[in-house]
Amino acid sequence: MKTPKLLALATAFGAVAFLAVAADSPAPAAASGSVPAAAPSTYTVTLSSVHMCCGNCVKGASKAVSSLSGVTAVGSTDDGSVVVTAPDKATAQKAVDALTNAGFYGTSSSADIKVNSDTGATTTKVSSLEISNLHLCCGKCVNAVNDILSKVDGVTGNTAKTKATTFTVTGDFSPKAVMDALQAGGLTGKVGATMPEVTAAPKT
């Protein structure tokens, strides 16, 4: 027969052994059918063929969407793209609208996200056209505008300068032809004041 002292020692030893085994045992598996917490969803769309000539263009794209919660716009000078990440599709559309309002233009990778091409330009020829909100952060942007406009039929000059918010195109040309050419180069803006085409006075 075990003495009370031996029984006490055996009981204590058993308790210690149980705690040691419990500590080494893996946590119980989740109950069958339980669903892990879902990661926050995001919506991503890429604009391609955007004018991205320098680091300031990249910063400009990021700044354009900075007022939208949970949105980023990462531009690349390597391939002229802007990757927009947003909490949902509706917010991604707002981000793309903000980019075009800031003078950036490109082709959307998603059929659900539209790039607004409306600039207010018409096909009626004019001698002077004011353009605003076109991205002109540096000399390279100005050179790009000069190169684009030099190839538009009837354009003879422009006043684009670094960081200008508005500039004027002159000549005898179609405003729509000007804006279409700028958008093809990854830039956009809004048409302001115009001067009608100068016509020669009839001979008497």
Describe this structure in words.
There is one protein chain. This protein is α+β, with helices and mostly antiparallel strands. Among the domains are: 43-108, Alpha-Beta Plaits (2-Layer Sandwich); 126-196, Alpha-Beta Plaits, CATH 3.30.70.100. The chain has five helices and eight strands. The chain has helices at residues 4-24, 55-64, 89-101, 139-149, 175-184; strands at residues 43-48, 72-76, 81-86, 107-108, 126-132, 155-158, 166-173, 190-196. Strands 2-3-1-4 form a four-stranded antiparallel sheet. Strand 2 (72-76) and strand 3 (81-86) form a beta hairpin. The N and C termini lie far apart (142 Å). The relative contact order is 0.14. Residues 4-25 and 27-31 have low confidence and may be disordered.
Short description:
With 204 residues, the chain is of the alpha+beta class. Helices cover 32% and strands 22% of the residues. Strand 2 (72-76) and strand 3 form a beta hairpin.
